[in-house]
UniProtKB/TrEMBL annotation:
Superkingdom of source: Bacteria
Protein name per UniProt: DUF2029 domain-containing protein
Organism: Histidinibacterium aquaticum
Signal peptide: none
UniProt key word Endoplasmic reticulum: no
């Protein structure tokens, strides 16, 4: 993905210097967070190892490990257990390979850099905690995003399409909500064949996942009980470990099932609004930039759809929103760009003040402030005049009125 200059009045060297300064601050900030956290890292990998050790010794893998639970289905447990003592090394190799593939994907490096920068803008440890937890989920996201962007770039490639569907099916056995990535297969090529392939992928996953309940009913029951204890706990509200999705917000005011319904309606309504405005506004005349913005917008919505959106999920929301903000802002005149960047700086200062004051809902502010800002910019350029677009539209209308000569 290529990104142009933000301020037309500056030189490319100056602009790169400004971006480099922001990234340098992000790197320093995240290194300080890592230093503070060290050596307490990869704690979720320790849970995997403890669960596998217990299972291989004839004990339950779904017991509590210092308050944490193994929340993966029996087939995933069998795959982990087959690694034995090699499990930590195998996972580290998987994490390294997933990261390298992600950074080479074309969209991975911009997202990675945006995640580093947005951690400074929101004064948060979201991205470092995601990586430092050692949870497999963030690296599954790396693989899913890599496969999705590849099929998005070359929708006619059968090899990329096959890789995409196999990747989504397999990682969805580990985390079922990854099935939502199937939307990229349909967005990349809106055809009956692609819809049929997506349905076949979902059906294959359902058969494999459901087979666990038939072949190992006791283990499957322990898995569901473990997941319930980890996510919902024994108290009320949305649950004790459900992350910061819209579901968790609604769950503070209504019951869990109404909150889940509201969550789905909210994300579906947001998707309808965004893509409806996108389609009828004509705001993306450049096909390449249009597909990049479409991919990032869909990625935000796919992440938000997960009702248990944890820290290793919602880093995507902030990073993708920062990129959307940046790409859209290139369309504005330099004075408007300065205004929006001034608002961004004010937002960062406000978050910093909330952090110092111990604002109780700061966790939600950190997750949703950048998306809200990107959404506001999106509506501004979708519904308001864009430099160059108004003149082009007027020319097209004049040509249409004059007709063929």
């Amino acid at each position: 993905m290529t990104v142009g200059r933000v301020f037309p009045e500056t030189t490319r060297k100056t602009e790169r210097g400004l971006l480099a300064a922001l990234l340098a601050l992000g790197v320093v900030w995240n290194l300080l967070l890592l230093y503070r956290q060290w050596p307490e890292v990869f704690w979720d990998l320790g849970v995997y190892e403890a669960a596998v050790t217990a299972f291989n010794q004839g004990q339950s893998a779904y017991q509590s490990f210092e308050g944490l639970y193994f929340v993966y289905s029996p087939y995933v447990l069998f795959a982990f257990a087959s690694l034995g003592t090699w499990l930590p090394a195998a996972f580290l190799l998987l994490y390294l390979a997933a990261t390298l593939l992600f950074l080479r994907s074309g969209i991975g490096l911009p997202l990675f850099l945006a995640a580093i920068a947005s951690s400074v803008l929101t004064v948060s440890s979201i991205f470092m905690t995601s990586v430092g937890s050692g949870n497999v989920t963030i690296f599954l996201h790396f693989l899913a995003i890599t496969a999705s962007f590849a099929v998005f770039q070359a929708p006619a490639s059968r090899a990329r399409a096959a890789t995409f569907f196999v990747t989504v099916c397999l990682i969805s056995l580990i985390k079922p909500y990854f099935l939502s990535y199937l939307v990229f297969g349909v967005l990349a090529e809106r055809s009956r064949r692609r819809v049929a392939a997506s349905l076949l992928c979902a059906l294959s996953w359902a058969v494999l996942f459901g087979a666990q309940a038939l072949s190992h009913p006791d283990l499957f029951g322990e898995f569901l009980a473990s997941l319930r204890l980890q996510a919902l706990g024994s108290g009320g509200g949305a649950g004790q470990d459900v992350g910061l999705a819209p579901y968790s917000v609604f769950g503070e005011f209504v019951g869990r099932y109404p909150a889940l319904v509201l969550h789905v309606l909210f994300v579906a309504g947001l998707a309808t609004l965004l893509f409806g405005v996108w389609r009828f506004s004509g705001m993306a005349p450049d096909p390449k930039e249009s597909r990049t913005l479409l991919f990032l917008t869909a990625l935000i919505l796919v992440t938000l759809l997960n009702p248990r959106m944890k820290v290793y999920d919602y880093w995507i929301v902030g990073a993708a929103s920062a990129l959307v903000f940046y790409l859209l802002l290139k369309r504005a005149e330099w004075l408007e760009q300065l205004t929006w960047f001034g608002l961004l700086c004010a937002m960062t200062l406000a978050v910093f003040a909330m952090w110092l004051a111990g604002f109780p809902y700061l966790k939600y502010v950190r997750v949703y402030l950048l998306p809200l800002l990107a959404f506001t910019v999106f509506l501004r350029f979708a519904l308001g005049p864009i430099p160059g677009r108004t003149e082009a539209a007027s020319g097209l209308r004049a040509a249409a009125r004059s007709g063929p000569r």
